[in-house]
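Title: Prediction job returns without error message
Component: structure pipeline
Severity: low
Priority: P3
Assignee: unassigned

Description:
Job completed but the reporter wants confirmation the result is attached to the right record. Sequence as submitted:
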Amino acid sequence: MVDVLENKRAATRFRILVEIAERQPAVSQGEIAEAVGVTSQAVSEYIRELVDEGLVEKEGRSRYRVTKEGVDWVFQSASDMRRFVDHVTDDVLGSVQEDAAIAEAALDEGETVSLSLADGLLHAAPGDHGGATGVTTTSAEEGAVVGVTGFEGVIDLEPGHVSVVQVPTVRSAPNGSDADIAAVCADAPIVTAAGVEAVVALRAAGVDVTTYFAPGEVAADAASRGLDAVVVATQDTVGRVTDALRDANVGYDVTQ
């Protein structure tokens, strides 16, 4: 269990640190107490401990700032909570939620269907053919949208791979060719661009760009659905792209 959810004291420390970060440097302990739901005396004691531990620094009377160590602790706790929430919504509640799928044949409400992913989209076929199954919540004709719930099993899916191609920034010398970019993107169903230079490089190579908004996140989502993807990124944006891919636990390689 995540510490800030399991331990009331850790949860209070987390909330007080967040309140200080939001209000710094002029911090009213009374306002924090009201927001967190504890006494002003308790807030004062918590802040004293946070200062002693180096998570908060005192600049003067009622003036505090969250230190780098404090920010790191809040980020780590928030990341732990995010992963826990993802586990609850995806793994725990996934079997009771309703999702939409494309009907591969005419389906009636209440029918058991086999589930698969094709082109990154959920498909439902009549019958139980092993693997992942569900029960329809609506009726649908072939090719129409059908509601599905009661998910069981695991969809047979080979995760996609993301190729990250670096291109120079506007002030850097070229380090590749249009042909190289076209070759990498030739068979990729998803191509995203990070940076104006990347968009222009793809256009020069005759490659259609899927999107240039949140390119790392889009590529990661595509890979999680079994699609290979290419991200063309300027050298100063590659880090943000690979961060998104690592966060999604997606396999990738970076080339220049």
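Comment from assignee: result matches the submitted record. The longest strand covers residues 145-152.
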